[in-house]
Each structure stands twice: as structure tokens, then as C-alpha cells.
Amino acid sequence: MRIKLWIGMAAALLLSPMLASAADTIDGKALYGANCASCHGATGEVSEYGKSLKPFPARNHRAIADLIGRDEMRRIISYGVRGTAMTPKKYTLDALEIEAVIDYIKTFEYTPNLANGKKRFEAVCVSCHGVDGRAQTGMGAKNLVYSKLNLEEIVHTMRYGRQGTMMKSNRHQLSNEDIADVANYVFALRYMANPAKGKKLFANNCSTCHATPRTVKLIGNAASKRTVADLSDRLLDLRIRHGRHVDRAGKKVENLSADDIQDIVAYMRKSTK
């Protein structure tokens, strides 16, 4: 039994370099040309035939080659996309060939058009997220200025939505170019908060009652189990704007801009690590 086990292990060790070598020698560009280019174009931009496909045209691979993870690409290539002309390729490409195609797609480059991103954002997103992305619309959307999502995560959210929320899939409403442009525009909306400025604002507006951010006491459900450090930026923002202290803080809080509050949040965050 041990002899068979050692033989199996030895065979696996011998085959591993061979498989790696095979993957290195597979021509992903040629495979892409043979299996994908008729719809998606030789360089990832949609062909005329691809544009004519129903019910949805082919997607521009160049626009989001760097914004979609390998796992998602592997799933789409292997199993296709139901309801579209994208058929499964697992029957014509083996696992190593699919990886080689992904490697080739990942070489594509795209320069985002922020002007188009702003235009499409205003057409599709502002009703929930607001013109400035701060989501002060009463729709329960996320404040994009406070978002911690990276570009790939923003694209995934736009393509597939968020279950249990009003954020629906936009992958058929927006082209890949639009999605890439909007994602980069949304990412650019983020205001780089200034903790030093926030410290001064805290001293002028908050220190009468709260000597430091660490002395801020939470009240309400589970307050004894949480501290300021446990609250999200969004929740801190809401507490500063609408917390019970507002009656005492009065005009000071009312006169704080959204960016002022984000600076205060940044200072509180830095002080309670």
C-alpha cells in the first residue's frame, strides 16, 4: 500500500512541472481569436457581429479586463451567461486553455472616460445616491464618499446589485464601458479626509462635552458592548448630525459641512484605534 502511495506521489510530482510547462506554452491569444474574437473582437472591443447579437450585444472585454476577478471570468467562460449569446466554453476549452484565455484578456488596457462616467451616473444612480454621491435622498442607499469598496467591488455591485436592497443589477442596462467609467467616477468622488483638520473641528465643536473621541459614550441598545471604534463611518456621520447631543450643540453642528464631518470622523477614527 505504501509503495503504491509513494508511486502516486512521485507521479504527481513529475506531472506538476509538466502541467505548469503546458500552461506556459498555451497560446491564449490564439485561443481567444478562435473562440471569442468573432463576437468580442480580436482586441477585446466588440465586433460588428457582436453588436448585432440579440437580446443583448456582446460585451467589451477591454473596458473591464482589469476590473473583474479571475474567478468570475472563469465562471463566465466555462458556463456562459444564461439568456445571452454567450455559450459555455467548457466543452471546447480545457481548464488550462481557459486560464490562458484569461491571461490574454488581462493584458487588455482601458482608459476610463470620467466625463461619460459622470453623465451615466447622473442618468442611472443619482435618484438613490444623490448628485454628490452622499446618498442624502432618503432612499437608504450607501454614501459613496464613505465607501471602502475597491474598483473591482464597485464593478461587481453595479453588475449584480445587492440582494435585499434597492441596488439592482445594471449589467444589461449599462455597457461594460459605461460600468468602467461610472466605477472610476464613483471612486473619484471619495474625499480624502483630513484628521488634522478634524482635530481642530472637534475641539471647536465637540470638546465642550467630549474631551476626546475616546470619552464619547454610546447610549441605546448594546451600547455597553460597543465603542466609537465599532461604529461605521456612515453611522458616526448620522450620530454627529442627528444624535441626542444636537439640542445642546445647536448651530455648531448645523453649520458643519459634509466634508467637515468626514474630517471629524477621520480624527475620531485615528484617535480610537
How does this structure look, described?
The chain has 273 residues and is an all-alpha fold. The chain folds into three domains: 88 residues, Orthogonal Bundle (Cytochrome Bc1 Complex, Chain D, domain 2), CATH 1.10.760.10; 75 residues, Cytochrome c-like domain (Cytochrome Bc1 Complex, Chain D, domain 2); 77 residues, Cytochrome Bc1 Complex, Chain D, domain 2, CATH 1.10.760. Helices cover 53% and strands 0% of the residues. The chain is built from 16 helices and no strands. Helix 10 crosses helix 11, helix 12 crosses helix 16 and helix 13 crosses helix 16. The termini are far apart. The relative contact order is 0.09.
The class by helix and strand makeup works out as mainly alpha
Q: What's the mean pLDDT score?
A: 86
The CATH superfamily of the largest domain bears the name Cytochrome c-like domain
> Gap between N and C termini, in Å?
56 Å
Proportion in β-strands: under 5%
Uncertain parts: 18-22
**Highest-level CATH class of the largest domain:** Mainly Alpha
Specify the number of helices.
16
Radius of gyration (CA) equals 26 Å
The overall number of domains is 3
